[in-house]
């Protein structure tokens, strides 16, 4: 049986907190063959996104119980930064909130503009490519 509760240690205080496992979770795969799991089943530790060593990342993967092979994102070689965030939204006319999972990368072009490519995972596990405009607004 899979763990559902993990421990997060606050860096500033050293205080332990319990974190519930997300339906979709990330795994960072490094160039040296190692990986960092957001929810590490072996240790019971929850890792924050900022713990990822982006300088040495080869690919980024989102996995779930229904999709253990996951959705893989190769990182472009030209110095792109990895992006991952959640967005809780309520659809028009609905009472319940839903969680959307976003991941992708951003890079600055030769004119200094931020270009982003994002993948969104919906509650029904369908995915969509989402362009996010410079400044963070969705198109």
Structure description:
- With 139 residues, this protein is an all-beta fold.
- The chain has one domain.
- The chain contains no helices and twelve strands.
- A four-stranded antiparallel sheet has the order 4-3-7-8, with no helix packed on it.
- A hairpin with an 8-residue loop joins strand 9 and strand 10.
- The protein starts with a strand and ends in a 9-residue tail after the last strand.
- The relative contact order is 0.14.
- The C terminus is likely disordered.
Give the count of helical stretches: 0
* Mean pLDDT level: 88
The total beta strand count reads 12
Unreliable parts: 133-139
**Share of residues in strands:** over 45%
Shape assignment: globular
Helix and strand topology:
Elements: E1 5-9, E2 16-20, E3 25-30, E4 35-37, E5 39-40, E6 45-46, E7 57-63, E8 71-74, E9 81-89, E10 98-108, E11 114-121, E12 127-130
Antiparallel strand pairs: 1-2, 3-4, 3-7, 5-6, 7-8, 9-10, 10-11, 11-12
Structure summary:
The chain is mainly β. Helices cover 0% and strands 47% of the residues.
Using brief descriptors, characterize the structure shown.
disordered C terminus, globular, 4-stranded antiparallel β-sheet, 0% helix
């Amino acid at each position: 049986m899979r763990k559902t509760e993990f421990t997060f240690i606050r860096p500033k205080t050293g205080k332990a907190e319990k974190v519930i496992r997300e339906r979709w979770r990330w795994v960072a795969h490094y160039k040296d063959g190692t990986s960092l799991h957001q929810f590490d089943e072996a240790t019971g530790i929850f890792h924050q996104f900022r713990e990822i060593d982006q300088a040495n990342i080869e690919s980024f993967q989102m996995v779930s119980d229904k999709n253990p092979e996951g959705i893989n994102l190769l990182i472009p070689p030209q110095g792109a930064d990895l992006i991952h965030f959640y967005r809780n939204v309520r659809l028009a006319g609905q009472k319940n909130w839903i969680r959307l999972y976003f991941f992708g990368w951003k890079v600055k072009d030769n004119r200094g503009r931020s270009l982003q490519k994002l993948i969104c995972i919906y509650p029904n596990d369908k995915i969509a490519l989402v362009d996010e405009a410079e400044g963070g607004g969705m198109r």
